[in-house]
TrEMBL record:
InterPro entries: His_Pase_clade-2, His_PPase_superfam. It holds the Pfam family His_Phos_2. It comes from Zootermopsis nevadensis. Keywords: Hydrolase, Membrane, Signal. It comes from the Eukaryota. GO terms for cellular component: membrane. This is Multiple inositol polyphosphate phosphatase 1. It is found in: Membrane. One of its GO terms (molecular function) is inositol phosphate phosphatase activity. Residues 1-19 form the signal peptide. Its EC number is 3.1.3.62, 3.1.3.80. It is an enzyme of class 3 (hydrolase).
Length: 198
């Protein structure tokens, strides 16, 4: 009798193992990942100029970290190890195991890690976009200060000596002035005593 019950309960499992939802059709996925959350998902939802009665903005300062970067080499290697997990999931699904819908499995088949080791610690494309868009929003919020053409007497830009911080600064400049071409960008000071925290 026992094998039959076991068989029946296995079949029972298979019957319940049907997809009842698809991640591919979730248009409102969970996006909050602590310090890894792209600003695009969480920023204040207004572009209106800041207006404080009896006041006008006279200076704008921003001291900012770099935008979202690629992880370190170990983290990138960990991402590549997900390929074998991906393949296990695809094989299981082919053999009728698991609850993923067909579209999710298809998407997994197309998925491959995007990060390569030479990019470790570099600014990610999302990091560039975030810094660019932060600049655009500040420009809308403080047009009297930031919506004007560049001049080296009025604007000073500094950044530290790494790819991710340099490119974050350029993205911000790009957002404010629409280009980095005419902007004076001083060479970063190695081990800058003012901007570096470590
Ligand atoms: C900047 O000024 C121009 C010209 O006055 C205006 O068309 C544009 O919308 C302004 N941009 C922002 C972000 O305030």
């Amino acid at each position: 009798m026992l094998p039959l019950i076991l068989w029946a309960s296995l079949v029972g499992c298979q019957v319940t193992a049907k997809a009842d939802s698809c991640f591919a059709q979730n248009y409102n996925p969970y996006v909050l990942f602590s310090t890894y959350t792209p600003y695009e998902f969480v920023h204040e939802n207004t572009d209106d100029p800041v207006h404080i009665p009896q006041c006008r903005p006279v200076q704008f300062w921003i001291l900012s970290r770099h935008g979202t970067r690629y992880t370190d080499a170990a983290g990138i290697n960990n991402m590549w190890s997900l390929i074998s997990l991906r393949d296990h999931i695809i094989t299981n699904s082919k053999n009728g195991r698991g609850t993923l819908c067909a579209q999710d499995v298809d998407n997994l088949k197309k998925w491959t890690p995007q990060a390569v080791l030479t990019l470790s610690m570099n600014l990610a494309p999302q990091g560039y976009k975030d810094s660019y868009n932060v600049a655009r929003r500040f420009k809308s919020r403080f047009p009297a200060l930031l919506n004007q053409s560049y001049s080296p007497e009025k604007f000073e830009i500094r950044y530290t000596n790494s790819q991710r911080t340099t490119l974050t600064a350029l993205a911000f400049v790009d957002g404010i002035f629409g280009s980095t071409v005419d902007v004076v960008l001083p060479k970063p000071i190695p081990g800058d005593p003012l901007l570096r925290t470590t």
